[in-house]
Amino acid sequence: MEEREGELRWDGLCSRDAATRAAALDTIGQAVLRRSETIAPVAAVPPARAADGLLVPAARDGLSEVLARLLMLSKRCPFPDVREKSETILSEVQELGIRIPRPLGHGPSRFIPEKETIQVGSEDAMMHTLFADSFAALGRLDNVTLVMVFHPQYLESFLKTQHYLLQMDGPLPLHYRHYIGIMAAARHQCSYLVNLHVNDFLHVGGDPKWLNGLENAPQKLQNLGELNKMLAHRPWLITKEHIEQLLKTEENSWSLAELIHAVVLLTHYHSLASFTFGCGISPEIDCEGGHTFRPPSVSNYCICDITNGYHGVEEIQASPTAAIPVSTCLNKSVCEVEALMEKMKQLQECRDEEEASQEEMATRFEREKRESMFVCSSEDEESAPTRDVSRHFEDTSYGYKDFSRHGMHVPTFRAQDYSWEDHGYSLVNRLYPDVGQLLDEKFHIAYNLTYNTMAMHKDVDTSMLRRAIWNYIHCMFGIRYDDYDYGEINQLLDRSFKVYIKTVVCTPEKTTKRMYDSFWRQFEHSEKVHVNLLLVEARMQAELLYALRAITRYMT
């Protein structure tokens, strides 16, 4: 855990062994205080005057980045000893007269009040194990994890899969994996994920020059740009010719195993960008937009909060229900829940009584697919500001919106002809062992996850509703299940919910808090996060099906 070339080593903090963590913390603390003393004012400023803004900035020697990381550890590390010692080091630095950072925002999500999320340090034994596993693997407990933990069974599967894709033995070198993650996240301008993987890319020895733009990366990665673009926005356009181009490009060619690894990474991060925007994930405390060195104003609220998208009271007042009396709101929302449950009951009775013909089922699918193209938001509200990450990919004008505007036709992909269970699963498992199994488990957990509740109601069978959400997403991608009656979708998913689904899945960067607030108003935040898990996995599977079908066609 020595200090090398001015860099601090943080690895020891991830250890399960308390003595190893204590030794690492001592080394870090001494190194930070040595650096701090070189820039501290001659006479240290008394801590009582810290709020007066009389402390010197910590910008020199990379100290500000180190202090931001210590702030993150003091709030987000699952090990209490690390949290406490990090806080102590920050206090000692402040006593030397150096300004220390403070967090911006309120919790891991801009959409979910912090008091309704799991607080680090108050989690139960099962969640603590998940947090410790995540921290040991990534060196952080990120905000995605802190929101996903509403559903621990899913989170465990997600973390296991992501760890395997990024860190375990596989066809691609580690720095390629993180760079592909950056390319995928950047397609949706997801600066949250780009920031995380830029740090990880550098940590595993990636060349900083590649971060200046895709044209600075090896030609092999540049060649992946076209597939990345189509997978993210129009996967139905992928053909075996696109696959052949990647596999046959002589010295820059991809092997089949490498390509499967890359495709799974691309689809994973396109979908994770959907979750990030769909749940309003806040910037990490130690990343840009997650902290500030500016002193708080008298009211603990300052202009830097506004510029980072945290509007405090104003944000609450801007919510769609703010002007309506609470009782009216609650009554309307309760009625919506009751109405939805009644529709589910009626549809079940209709199913039992009669079944539509195959021709009628096909007509209903085509109608729903056509209508889904015209579901769009009338929002003029700005979504969360994001840093420009366009340099990480080409053709920034290419997107889902352009496609639908031209009224082009999405071809129908019959799930009976090529499905994950019968075709995709075995192809992935053959070329990238164990990953097919991990993905299959994750898809099944998301699809079957239920607590048999709907808002305040218990003992409810939600399978019909979950299937409608999943099949609506696949319908937007042109994927049809012959045995499903698509007429159910219009009965179960109202317009505001469809707008939210379409935005999160197709143009996640346009998702707003107003959209999140406007659907299922009486449901718990955990239920809305559950919806996002369905969106993530249905989207990922849809993209994978198109890519894997093209690879299968190339192979045959």
Question: What would you say this structure looks like, in words?
Answer:
The structure is a single chain. A two-stranded antiparallel sheet has the order 1-2. Strands 3-6 form a two-stranded parallel ribbon. The protein has a two-stranded antiparallel sheet with strand order 4-5. Helix content is 56%, strand content 2%. Mean pLDDT is 84; it is low at 1-6, 47-54, 298-330 and 401-405. The chain is mainly α and 556 residues long. It has 24 helices and 6 strands. A hairpin with a 2-residue loop joins β4 (453-454) and β5. GO terms for molecular function: L-leucine binding; oxidoreductase activity, acting on peroxide as acceptor.
Task: Please summarize what this structure is.
Helix content is 56%, strand content 2%.
Supply database-style keywords.
556 residues, mainly alpha, 2 domains, two-stranded antiparallel sheet, two-stranded parallel sheet, 24 helices, 56% helix, 2% strand, globular, disordered N terminus
